[in-house]
Specification:
The protein has 506 residues and is α/β, with parallel strands linked by helices. It folds into 3 domains: 1-31 and 446-506, no CATH class; 52-197, no CATH class; 206-445, Spore Coat Polysaccharide Biosynthesis Protein SpsA, Chain A. It contains 14 helices and 19 strands. The chain has helices spanning 18-30, 35-39, 52-65, 91-99, 127-134, 184-197, 218-227, 246-257, 301-306, 362-376, 395-413, 425-436, 456-466, 486-505; strands at residues 71-73, 84-87, 104-107, 141-144, 152-160, 166-167, 177-178, 206-211, 264-268, 282-286, 317-322, 325-327, 343-345, 347-351, 384-386, 391-394, 439-441, 447-451, 472-476. β5 and β6 form a beta hairpin. The longest helix is centred in the last third of the chain and has 20 residues, at 486-505. The protein is globular.
């Protein structure tokens, strides 16, 4: 197993050509953390990772802060860190009130930085600091005094408009402006019902499920080779199972940009990755726990995916992920599900080769086989490819899929490696979900596909350094690197780490 590198050393140069290292490092240094946030004020809660216990503590703090006469509840979704709103004209009084409160203290960033060093409210009311807070260039958090967890509530300063109203410093999805004497009671009523009643919000839990394998594990390799045929194919190639710690980076960007994810499942074949500080957020589950014994061992992702709905405790709505997916910007659950739980499916412009094409590869033939099976089952189909990213799926739809296509899925489950006769479960799931009304067509989601060992990847890395990252980045390695070609492998790993570091800094 490749040794896990700490995030402190993520930017270390471990490969790449001399020119690539020079150019990437130069542009990398230009991508300052929080650079865009300093220019554009926005909600303080967007990038915060939060646990349910911390959320409960924040709600308690928030309710007490509303005891200040000029404070009001900012209506937001229930998975967000709910801010307290303060009118710009009341900011000075609010700072004094909190500063004199025996239970509270100010921090710049709860749980990550020390509390604000101050001996009186004069510090926070000093010209420079006060103006930065008032203009939204600095965000202050109110935490329990002496709290070790650092769970805090952000304070949003609403600026006075030319009409005498007060406008939100950033988009919160519901209320953008309040009057000078806002009816706090009505705002609280909206706030308490927003998550359940708003058509824009997702009021249910969403899990994430990763399929992962360490292809360098000698024990696993021996088992794979035992069941492999002499004729190598896409389904048995070692490159399909290569691990470069993509999983760590994928989960890190997921938690950074989608803190609302309820539970992260990691499906493995008797393996446990070293996830360092992320381990406590991940539930590792072995194939034996949910895939029938008769289909094991399996090295076929189609088989594993087809049985995901059998995972005990898995949420009805979940995202099916591979470790080659990274998340580049804050995302809402509504990117993949609507408020009624329907999946939002995104198809690309790429179409499958015609059924008469003789040299279509295993991947395309398996998809064609899935389309053909769906047609025989009376489902509407698409010949367009599904965007290779997070796949929204429903357990109930998968159960129905087995009821209607059980024989074909059983046949697929007997294939230890990918074959052209496989059903592709996520494709079949989408066709069926569309028929039952459990899926609709999704809108645009910014996306970048980067082949790590291709020359074009360098330009895309540079693009990430100088522009706002896309919502989803897919990393791939389409060709197999020989064991002896360590220089090429180091370049590929170098590029992976640079991309991950850029996304985690953004």
């Amino acid at each position: 197993m490749i040794e896990m590198k700490s995030m402190q050393n993520i930017t270390a140069s471990i490969g790449g050509t001399p020119l690539e290292r020079f150019v990437v490092q130069a542009l990398f240094s230009m991508a300052k953390p929080g650079k865009k946030d300093q220019k554009i004020s926005g909600p303080a809660w967007v990038n915060q990772r939060i646990h349910p216990a911390e959320h409960r503590q924040q709600l308690q703090i928030r309710s007490r802060l509303l005891g200040f006469e000029g404070a009001f509840a900012v209506p937001v979704s229930n998975w967000m860190i709910a801010p307290v709103g303060v009118r710009s004209t009341d900011l000075g009084k609010f700072l004094e009130w909190v500063g004199q409160h025996p239970d509270f203290e100010f921090r710049w960033k709860p749980g990550q930085l020390q509390e604000i060093e101050w001996h009186s409210t004069k510090y926070l009311k000093s010209g420079q600091i006060f103006n930065e807070i008032k203009k939204g260039k600095r965000t202050i958090y109110v935490c329990e005094r002496g709290s070790q967890t650092g769970s805090g509530v952000p304070v949003e300063v609403w600026k006075k408009t030319s009409k005498g109203n007060f406008a939100s410093p950033g988009w919160n999805g519901s209320v953008s402006e309040v009057g000078p004497l806002a009816a706090e009671a009505s705002l609280l009523e909206i706030d308490q019902n927003l998550a359940a009643l708003s058509i824009h919000d997702v009021p249910f839990e969403v899990d994430a499920v990763y399929l992962w394998v360490d292809g360098s594990d000698p024990k696993w390799l021996a088992k794979k080779r035992k069941h492999s045929t002499e004729a190598q194919s896409h389904g048995t190639s070692d490159s399909r199972f290569t691990s470069r710690n993509e999983l760590y980076f994928s989960i890190a960007t997921l938690l950074k940009n989608a803190p609302w994810i309820n539970r992260i499942w990691l499906v493995t074949d008797g393996q446990t990755p070293d996830l360092g500080d992320l381990a406590d957020r991940v539930t590792v589950i072995d194939h034996k726990k949910f895939i029938p014994k008769e289909f094991l061992p399996t090295f076929n992702s189609h088989v594993i995916t087809a049985h995901l709905h059998r995972i005990q405790g898995l949420a009805e709505n979940f995202l099916y992920l591979n470790d080659d997916i990274l998340f580049g910007r804050p995302l809402l659950p509504s990117a993949w599900f609507d408020s009624h739980g329907r999946c939002l499916i995104r198809y690309t412009r790429t179409t499958l080769p015609g059924f008469s094409v003789a040299d279509a590869d295993v991947i395309h033939k398996a998809r064609q086989h899935t389309v053909y099976s769906a047609i025989k089952g009376g489902l509407q189909i698409s010949m367009r490819s599904i965007q290779h990213g997070p796949h929204p799926m429903r357990r109930s739809t998968m159960e129905l899929m087995w009821n209607r296509f059980g024989d074909e899925l059983t046949a697929t489950s007997r294939n230890r490696f990918r074959t052209q006769d496989d059903l592709v479960p996520e494709w079949l799931h989408n066709f069926l979900a569309y028929e039952t009304g459990d899926a609709v067509m999704g809108g645009k989601l910014t996306y970048s596909y980067i082949v790590l060992n291709a020359k074009s990847s360098l330009a895309k890395i540079l693009n990430l350094a100088v522009r706002r990252p896309p919502s989803v980045v897919c990393l791939n390695d389409v060709s197999e690197i020989a064991d002896s070609d360590r220089a090429s492998e180091k370049i590929t790993e170098y590029r992976l780490q640079k991309i991950a570091a850029l996304l985690l800094k953004a």
